Amino acid sequence: MSAVVKFWSRLSAAVLGATLALVVPVHAWAASTGVTDIAVEAARSRRRGGFGFFGIFGAVCCLFVVAAIVLVIVLVGRNRKRRDDGSPRK
User: Fold this and answer.
1) In whole angstroms, how far apart are CA 4 and each of 1, 11, 13, 57?
2) What is the pLDDT of residues 48-80, one digit of tens each?
3) Which of 5, 6, 56, 84 is the 20 to 30 A CA-CA neighbour of 41?
4) Which long-range contacts (CB under 8 A, 24 or more apart) does 11-16 make?
5) pTM to 2 decimals?
């Protein structure tokens, strides 16, 4: 149980750090340049019909990114287990 808690705490810390590293500078930039007014105006005037090509492309891209992150976590976990078993490092 300790290993699971350690894994999830490290994973959540990494996700939180990455999120804050991206969100805080972008928010500061948007607040200083007045982009928020343009974004609000664009959101109000946007038509409400379906996702279109970019919505589907965005969803597929998001799935690829999530799959890549999961793959990296699995590979790192496997590599760590092999080294803990006493097998020599490559």
Assistant:
1) 5, 10, 14, 34
2) 656 666 677 878 888 898 999 888 888 888 877
3) 56
4) 11/73
5) 0.38
